[in-house]
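Figure 2 data, in text form.
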Amino acid sequence: MTRRLQAYILLLAIAVAVGTLYSPVQSSAAAPATYTYGNTWGNVQNDAIVAQSGDWIYFNPRNASSGENAYLYKMKKDGTSVTKTPIKAQYQLNIVNGWAYFSGSKGYYYRQKLDGTMKQNLGFKGEDIQIVNGWIYYLDAAKHSQLWKSSLDGKTKKIVTKDPVNDVQVLGDWIFYVNGKDGNKLYKIKTDGTGRTKLNNAFAVSYMLVNKDWLVYEANQRIYKLRTNGKDLSVLTEDQPGPMNTDGKFVYYANNDDDRKLYRISLDGKTKQKLTDGMTTFIHVIGYWLYFTEQVDY
């Protein structure tokens, strides 16, 4: 990798005992094996600048704010064979069936073959974009952040809920989201738009993460956890978090109370550990590895 790229972002990977995580292009451990994901929601929460396809890790070596001229790179899982691809991708990266899906020019969502051919504008501008089982779920910024879904080719689009949505995660047949119309309370709804249910009167702010048993989110400058049935709300840690991610066993977060150093805490709250001494952001989890950016200088 060139010095110029290193000047923008130092991409690091740390091997940690993070347990089993669903692969971005395989089935989710938090849902039945029939579900396929273009990327994990925890990665989407961190701008999804890293994704996996087979033996390759695809990544944007700058970040979402670097403009539309940033190319996508790929490397082997061991960090070798770093290669520039012909794809100009900013962020919100999903990879499905040989296609890269990403935000590009003027905020539109695109797809392009991994070999650089057949670039297509999918006809919408979206946020918090996650691909699950052949559908692209996104918040339509032009329509009050309502939750929509689109077919992979962009030809079919359907509204899921008219609620103004903040954070959202698709998990199997259910979608968990923060309802901006109801004081940022936690809701769930089925992917076909039925079964809309308020989970709890808890106030959620950001960085919502969900596995089959627990929701974890930031509110009031601390991390909370809540069962997916809306019960057993508790404070996981008093640390004020920045970006967060999870593998279903640990929550990884930039600790704002300790100069944004990378920490992890087990979901039972019994184990807390500092992992790095650098200022951390864009935390991605793929398999048994963390990929993140560390601020070296301004």
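Caption note: The mean pLDDT is 85.
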